[in-house]
Amino acid sequence: MIKFVKNAFSGLLSLILWLNLILCTIAGGYSWSYFGSYNREFSVSGALIGFVAGLIINIVFGGLLATIINIDKNIEKIANKND
């Protein structure tokens, strides 16, 4: 059951990171045009800024969680070698 939960968490983390990147891109495009002097349309430059912001968020938080997951996998490998 624990292995199932670990695998499910890894899949869920991947899904969350992709959704975060997509939503940051969309939000950046619309918010850039809303706060700028544009005609309230989707802004490609804002979408690019949102994409970069989402990528940075994914690298910082997703990288931290991925590191924790890999530490757990490496501990299991070391424990199996000692048995």
Provide a short characterization of the protein structure:
By secondary structure, this protein is mainly alpha-helical. It contains 2 helices and no strands.
Structural account:
Helices cover 88% and strands 0% of the residues. The chain is mainly alpha-helical. It starts with a helix and ends with a helix. The mean pLDDT is 84.
Keywords, separated by commas or semicolons:
single chain; 83 residues; mainly alpha; 0% strand; elongated
- Class per helix and strand makeup: mainly alpha
Largest sheet: none
Number of helices: 2
> Stretches where pLDDT falls below 50 for ≥5 residues?
none
Strand residue percentage:
under 5%
Mean pLDDT equals: 84
Please provide the count of β strands.
0
Distance between the termini: 21 Å
Radius of gyration: 19 Å
> Can you write the helix and strand succession as a string?
HH
Q: What is the helical fraction, as a range of percent?
A: over 70%
Shape: elongated
Write the layout of secondary structure elements.
Blueprint: H1 2-35, H2 44-82
Helix pairs in contact: 1-2
